[in-house]
Write a structure and sequence with these properties.
The complex is a heterodimer. By secondary structure, chain A is of the alpha/beta class. Chain A is built from 25 helices and 12 strands. Chain A is elongated and about 115 Å long. In chain A, 52% of the residues are buried. Chain B has a 6-stranded mixed β-sheet with strand order 6-7-8-3-9-10, with helices on both faces. In chain B, helix 3 runs antiparallel to helix 4, helix 4 packs antiparallel against helix 6 and helix 6 runs antiparallel to helix 7. Chain B starts with 21 loop residues before the first helix and ends with a helix. The chains are: A alpha/beta, B alpha/beta. The interface between A and B is large, with 201 and 210 residues. Chain B: It is found in: Cell membrane. Chain B: It is a multi-pass membrane protein.
Chain lengths: 622, 619
């Protein structure tokens, strides 16, 4: 990190050489074979395989009709024109017209038969990606910035779809046309054909090298583009901080540096392309010049017909697109290959096996022999925690009795939120077990488990939908009355004052609400379904004192009839609970009522009143 | 390609928007997109291209010569056939050798010039994009916060990313393609007319149906294209929302419902895509038919002309070769039209953003602050009125004097105008009427660096930039030494948790093990503010996520740190009030109670009532 010596530079998304490590999980820039990656897409394209075959056939026939044109021209030149026999011209012209119309019709067909199926392939892939991402555990999403996922769902998909529609077909067709055209040229005149074909060898060797270099460069450009997008994102999301400290100039410097790097890579890509074009256009053209000289000489001295020369030159010209397009198509294939690799980076991510297995399994009704929530020897470490650091949770044993409200307290960063996230299995416990009314949460289907457990997160997220939909997420079958009760419990009276009441659209696409308002809606969402188990993560942090008091009062009614675990930072929240569990050093250090713990646990006392801090003596209102 | 990157990485906390009452939010919703002044897009294009005028001229020259060399091929074939072969039959190989040499020479020149052109135009393109990206970025930074609150972050981000990409695609693929097509059409037409005006004219006539086909395609595809953009935008919104809210999605079993909703927009997008492909098929079919019919016609007429001796065989050959070249690029023209449309739309949006002037403007003639007597400075609100753009008044008429060194706590219900007060003092907004002054100098007369040296605000948002913890703290003072950074962290009680991170102060907050809780983020934000060492410090709900010990540590630090400075503390929690010299209770944009904490607690006003409730909640 070069920036360390100079903290003046605002922290940056990635230093130059860390560009690829910054992002997702150690994405290997290692060159997977393009072909292998593209082959893996086959299952998606399989539904359209007959269509693809049809498209290839149509394109092939079209190209053949293009190749047939010079042959007809030759007949015209050597026949009617040479012999001044205009009567013979008509059928040949008719043939020419038929070939031309056939070509146009085939071109049309080629595209038409692929249009819907290929749009469908893209949709299927995107749908699968989306579904997979929804199934992947939260720990996966912690590691992957949403921008990286988004580019896989959009631009990478476009590239792959385009590949199926165009380059795939033409890689096949053009190779066929190339071979056919070569054979034709040899039948016309083998010497001219040889001259024309000489450049093919260096051309193929060069394009192979190009493919590798260009793929590396485009992957690099994609990543650098992602880094640049990150700088932009951060500079916008952190705009208040940048403005508050007047630091936007140094951020701009950072931006300049990153966009400069991207420019360098893009220029390298342009350079590679320029060389490719030079080789791919120049070599055949030079060969054609030689063929022209030799051909003209043959017509003059060696009895070759003028028609043959015309036909040969037209054929060679007709072969230009297949050869010229080679580099372009390979470049595209390389890009599609790297898009496919990026797609499979996500699709290959293992899903928690138990989750996948339990999906759809009959959800055994919880056995009632051990009511409440019980943690037994639960350990947890984040999968991406560095080696050598201790586990975050090192053995949690805790029992929340049925109907009881348990407050969970502990110092900042001790793992309270993480502990609550284990219950609905947003994270998987590394060891130990959690049971709900005696049933291990791993034996419940994911759906059933999350139906039983309702959560209000510390950071309240609302979706682009109406207030009603956002709240009823917690219980889709709930009626108007339940909605009203839930909103009342969360003191979300402001909803009535919104332009369209509970039908007002909120979220990124709608009205933006304040932190406190969002928190209250999230709370309403958690309680609307009368869940059997309720997990609240510091649900009142963004509320002002007045509202907080009102919410607390209303919450008591809800908490009376449910088993709840409530993360609390403040004494006021703790008072909602029947008992309190103190989390420290990855274990539950003490459990008891608020009063009991105040007496027995100095750590708890310190946490609740800051009393342990000697220099604060007397500074607190008592 | 629309990649509207939405806020924050999943690991990142959702940022609560600044305290905004419903009215303000309504104003935001009404104000969907900023209007684009007429001609802004064109003016922007002019500004972007202007500095590269010379290089663009060179590039155009390169491509002019390149195309001339390139298109001379068939002509030379005609010469070889009509002159070279007869001469050779007369045992004169001179003409054929000359033609061959010319052909090879042209091929070589065309190749080298094309290479040079691609490199040069690539360079120009990249320079333009660099310039454009920088402009948008700097402009977005310059725009005032009221703008940022209206125009969602997602939209600004897409201006600087996907819209630039749209232009990049046009520059990289479309523009040089179009240039080549246009030039080759011109060249070929001229050569055809020159070789034989009858056939040339016949070829020229084909431009009319071609034009009609291109026009109809353009009209039809425009509609499909718009549909497709809309569908993709909807897709992106669904997608990012799900990924950013993956915790609630999974916890509330939204997967199936989401998949259905996503499937619907996904299908819409597929429909639009397919329709676009079908339009293209129709276009290609029609243009090919026209081209081939015309070629056949030319051969027919040509054959008659050659037969009656008024046309050379070589010329007819050249004609046929040229006509294929003439019609071949028509397909590419269609692709160009598509990227042109998206680039034009993108340019329009970017121009709109760039044309938007920040409402908080830099002073034309900045005034310097008088030398400070102590650490703090006087703050004065002089008849300040503040209303949102929709006319909703937040502060009707506000007067307040804070002597240097005073610590003031502001309390009141949501919507009372506390945050507005803070934002006016930090000059995130300018007052509608009246003035906010620092040591008697209007904030509007201060240059930004001068202002930021003196006034620093810590908000409840605790966004961390990627980079190390130390770098995040050093935002407060870019030239701070490690010792200073550590001292600030120690003073605020953040040192302990930072020291326990895998790499201590050098832990990257976005990398392995860099998980930092909301409370810890707020401590970092405090350390940053301490390091900045301002004369006036504003704390807006800055302790909302801290637990009791954390908050007390902060307050301990504040007692020392705030000594001598002017401080405005906005708080939901009354504990913060303890360190204040003075308390203001606000309601509906007015100060309703004003006094020392002790006075107010002893009284019978709202503050006394609030305070009682709060004390009861304590241990």
């Amino acid at each position: 990190m070069a920036e360390n010596q100079n903290p003046a530079a605002p922290p940056t998304p990635a230093d130059a050489d860390g560009a690829s490590t910054e992002h997702p999980p150690e994405s290997p820039p290692a060159r997977h074979s393009t072909v292998r990656a593209l082959l893996r897409l086959w299952p998606y394209a399989r539904v359209a395989r007959w269509r693809i075959a049809g498209s290839v056939a149509a394109a092939g026939l079209a190209s053949l009709s293009v190749l047939a044109v010079p042959m007809v021209l030759r007949r015209i030149v050597d026949g009617p024109i040479a012999h001044h026999d205009l009567a013979a011209l008509r059928p040949l012209i008719g043939l020419l017209l038929v070939l031309g119309l056939a070509e146009a019709a085939l071109f049309y067909t080629r595209r038409v038969i692929l249009a819907r199926p290929m749009a469908g392939v893209e949709t299927a892939m995107r749908g699968d990606l989306y579904a997979k991402l929804q199934r992947l555990p939260v720990s996966f999403h912690d590691r992957w910035p949403s921008g990286q996922l988004l580019s896989r769902a959009t631009s990478d998909m476009f590239v792959m779809r385009l590949f199926f529609v165009f380059p795939l077909v033409f890689l096949i067709v053009n190779s066929t046309v190339f071979v056919t055209g070569t054979v034709l040229m040899f039948t016309l005149d083998w010497r001219l054909a040889l001259i024309t074909l000489v450049p093919a060898v260096p051309l193929i060797l060069y394009t192979r090298r190009f493919e590798g270099n260009y793929q590396t460069a485009s992957r690099m450009a994609q990543d650098q583009n992602g880094d640049l997008a990150t700088v932009v994102e951060e500079s916008i999301l952190g705009i208040r901080i940048l403005k508050a400290f007047g630091r936007h100039r140094s951020m701009a410097e950072e931006f300049r540096q990153h966009s400069g790097e991207l420019r360098t890579t893009e220029l390298r890509k342009a350079g590679l392309l320029a060389n490719l074009w030079a080789v791919i256009v120049g070599l055949p053209e030079l060969a054609l010049g030689c063929a022209l000289a030799v051909g003209a000489w043959q017509v003059a001295e060696d009895g070759m017909s003028a028609g043959t020369l015309v036909a040969f030159l037209s054929t060679a010209l007709a072969l230009r697109w297949p050869v010229e397009s080679l580099g372009w198509l390979l470049g595209f294939a390389a890009e599609a290959g790297s898009a496919a690799n990026r797609f499979f980076e996500v699709m290959d991510e293992p899903e928690p096996s138990s989750l996948a297995a339990a999906e759809g399994a009959p959800s055994g009704a919880p056995a009632a022999d051990d009511p409440g929530i019980r943690f037994t020897g639960v350990r947890f470490r984040y999968p991406d925690a560095p080696e050598g650091t201790p586990d975050l949770l090192t053995g949690i044993d805790l029992h929340v009795r049925p109907g009881e409200t348990m407050a969970l307290v502990g110092a900042t960063g001790c793992g309270k939120t993480t502990l609550t996230a284990l219950i609905p299995r947003l994270y998987e416990a590394t060891a130990g077990s959690i049971t709900l009314d005696g049933t291990d949460i791993r034996d419940l289907s994911r759906l059933r488990l999350r139906e039983l457990v309702s959560v209000a997160f510390e950071e309240p997220t609302l979706f682009s939908a109406s207030v009603r939909e956002n709240v009823l997420m917690g219980a889709p079958e709930a009626d108007e009355e339940r909605l009203a009760t839930a909103l009342a419990t969360a003191q979300a009276g402001f909803v009535a004052g919104l332009p369209e009441g509970a039908d007002t659209q909120v979220g990124e696409q709608g009205l933006s609400l304040s932190g406190g308002q969002r928190q209250r809606l999230a709370l309403a969402r958690a309680v609307v379904g009368d869940p059997r188990f309720l997990v609240l993560d510091d649900p009142l942090s963004a509320l002002d004192v007045h509202t907080e008091a009102l919410v607390e009062q209303a919450l008591r009614t809800v908490l009376a009839s449910t088993t709840a675990l409530v993360v609390a930072h403040r004494p006021s929240t703790v008072l909602l609970a029947d008992r309190v569990a103190l989390l420290a050093d990855g274990r539950i250090e003490a459990v008891g009522t608020h009063q009991e713990l105040l007496h027995s646990s100095p750590a708890y006392r310190a946490l609740m009143s800051g009393e342990a801090a000697p220099e604060l003596e007397g500074s607190l209102p008592r | 390609m629309t990649t509207t990157v939405q806020p924050a990485t999943p690991a990142e906390d959702e940022l609560p928007p600044p305290e905004a009452d419903t009215q303000a939010a309504l104003a935001a919703a009404e104000d969907e997109d900023i209007p684009v002044p007429p001609g802004a897009a064109r003016a922007l294009l002019g500004q972007l291209l202007g500095p590269h005028r010379r290089r663009i001229t060179v590039a155009v020259l390169l491509i002019l010569i390149q195309q001339a060399a390139m298109q001379s091929g068939p002509l030379l074939v005609a010469v070889a056939m009509d002159r070279g072969i007869p001469a050779l039959r007369d045992h004169d190989s001179g003409p054929l050798i000359a033609v061959t040499a010319a052909y090879l020479g042209c091929a070589l020149v065309a190749t080298l010039l094309q290479r040079a052109f691609i490199r040069l135009s690539g360079r120009i393109n990249q320079d333009i994009l660099l310039d454009l990206r920088g402009r948008i970025f700097r402009h977005a930074q310059r725009l005032s916060l009221d703008f940022h609150e209206r125009y969602t972050s997602g939209r600004i981000i897409s201006r600087a990313t996907s819209d630039v990409d749209a232009l990049r695609e046009l520059l990289a693929e479309g523009l040089q393609e179009l240039l080549m097509v246009a030039l080759s059409v011109c060249y070929i037409t001229v050569v055809l007319l020159w070789m034989d005006w009858r056939l040339g004219l016949a070829a020229l006539v084909s431009f009319l149906p071609m034009y009609l086909i291109v026009r109809s395609f353009r009209r039809r595809s425009q509609k499909v294209y718009r549909r497709s953009r809309t569908a993709v935008a909807a897709l992106i919104v669904r997608f990012t929302e799900t990924m950013n809210g993956i915790r609630p999605v999974q916890a509330f079993r939204r997967e199936a419902a989401n998949e259905r909703a996503f499937g619907a927009v996904n299908r819409q997008s597929a429909d639009a895509t397919a329709d676009g492909l079908l339009e293209m098929a129709r276009y290609v079919g029609l243009s090919r038919t026209t081209a081939n019919v015309w070629i056949t016609g030319v051969v027919l007429v040509g054959a008659y002309l050659v037969t009656d001796g008024s046309l050379a065989l070589g010329v007819l050959t050249a004609f046929v070769l040229y006509l294929r070249r003439l019609y071949d690029p028509i397909d590419q023209l269609a692709m160009f039209l598509n990227s042109y449309q998206s680039a034009a739309a993108a340019l329009e949006k970017m121009a709109g953003l760039l044309a938007h002037e920040p409402s908080v403007a830099e002073p034309a003639e900045p005034v310097e602050l008088p030398a400070a007597a102590g650490k703090g400075r006087d703050v004065g609100f002089d008849g300040v009125r503040f209303a949102y753009r929709n006319g909703k008044e937040v502060l009707p008429a506000f007067d307040l004097v804070l002597p240097a060194g005073q610590t003031v706590a502001v309390v009141g219900a949501t919507g009372a105008g506390k945050s507005t007060l803070a934002k006016l003092l930090a000059r995130f907004y300018d007052p509608t009427d009246g003035r906010v002054a620092l040591d008697g100098v209007d904030l509007r007369d201060l240059a930004t660096p001068e202002l930021r040296r003196n006034v620093v605000m810590v908000t409840q948002e605790s966004f961390l930039f990627s980079g190390t913890v130390a770098e995040n703290i050093a935002i407060g003072k870019p030239d701070a030494t490690r010792a200073e950074v550590e001292a600030a962290a120690r003073a605020i009680g953040a040192h302990e948790f930072i020291a326990e991170l895998p790499d201590g102060y050098d832990t990257d907050v976005r990398k392995r093990g860099g998980r930092i809780s909301a409370g810890q983020r707020q401590l970092v934000a405090f350390a940053r503010a301490l390091l900045a060492d301002p004369a006036v410090l504003i704390l807006d709900e800055a302790t909302s996520s801290l637990d009791v010990p954390g908050e007390q540590a902060v307050q301990r630090a504040m007692r020392t740190v705030l000594a001598g400075r002017t401080a405005v503390i906005i708080a939901h929690r009354l504990s913060t009030v303890e360190i204040a010299d003075r308390v203001l209770v606000m309601d509906l944009g007015r100060v309703v109670e004003d006094g020392t904490p002790a006075e107010l607690i002893a009284g019978t006003g709202r503050f006394a009532a609030l305070h009682r409730t709060w004390r009861d909640s304590l241990v």
